[in-house]
Amino acid sequence: MAMERPAQRPAPASQKAFPAPRATGSNRSSAAPQGARNRPILRFTTPDVRGPGWEPSGADRDEENYGRLRQSRDIPVHQLQHHQDEKHADGTTEASVRTTHSHGISYTGKRVARALIHDILACVGEFVGTFLFLFLAFQGAQSATYNRGAVNDQSLTTTDNQTILFIALSFGFSLVVVAWAFFRITGSAFNPAVTLSLWLVGGLSSRRAIGVVIAQLLGGIAAAGLSKGVTLGTFSVQNSLVTGLSSGKGLIIEMLTTALLCFTVLMLAAEKSRSTFLAPVAIGLALFVGHLASIGWTGAGINPARTFGPCVISASFPHNAWLYYVGQFLGSLLSTAIYVLLKHLDYEEVVGSIDSADASQSAAIDGAPLMKGLANTANLIPGVQIGEEVDTDAASHATVSDDVAAMEEGKAEHRPGGTLTDKA
Known about the structure:
56% of the residues lie in helices and 4% in strands. By secondary structure, the chain is mostly helical. It has a two-stranded antiparallel sheet. The protein is globular, with a radius of gyration of 34 Å. About 15% of the residues have low confidence.
């Protein structure tokens, strides 16, 4: 007598399988064949995001709706592809419907609007940052010249070392502080020459680069105007060549000092590394060194916004003002060319990555002659064993990792006293 199999109880609503898409029209041939069970399965699990103390209320009390929060759905790959490619009556696909929200704004439109908002924020940040940086720097330069009794002299002599140092510190440290404050907002270029370098290497879009340069020039004008209005004496921060220096020599000085600043930005800010957060310090020091090298000869432009602002406020453009802009942008191009060449030659492989923490890098450092000599010398001291200490730490980390893995797999349980025992 054959035994009858008991009837299967219907699955609860919360555990119902995800329905396969209905094959209609020309899509009937792509329906799941009989042997589809052997095909790959994609599992989609919806996590419970309501929190540990959440209880269903209102419409969520319905068992079917509540169960959908936790259900695990198995969808054969061929059904998933069929579901994605299924067309609606109006000819649109499922993917195209999902990219349009209920209010009629496409995802692409929202993305463009968000990018435009970010560009506006970057321009506003560059204007404010450039204004603060140059205002503080101009104030320092005005204080230095006024207190030194040079209010009637538009240029500084190479022998006025205290004034040169004071102005260089004002520009360098003003950039450090303001750049560090705005680094996470705008990137802290505050310099059209630096912006050109970042745009050439793909760090900025064309739209943002144009807006940022305009904002920087306006920030330089505003900083020069306010500095002139709140200080006494002659406004003496305008760039000018020292008497007897030719325009060609001044151009070379401006080009090289600007190239140093732009190259520092590219290597420390555009090249992301563990030391990127310290980039404003190095950039400020590069500007400080550039001022020490050029302020006694050209007045240290190094920044088109810094050169342009005082000229507008003073309503005076010297006949050789062109050499500052040409030299500064040539310096930007020079630094960018060097940076691109180094990237093309894979400069990272010359000395190895300083940001790598893998075993091969550590082994190379430990195997260096200096490290070997230090270890051998230290091992002669009683109670000091550098090699054994490192090995012990590595072994302890490995033991802890094994214990954690065993607990996760359920093969061991934690006992009072910090010990692990195997489950019987």
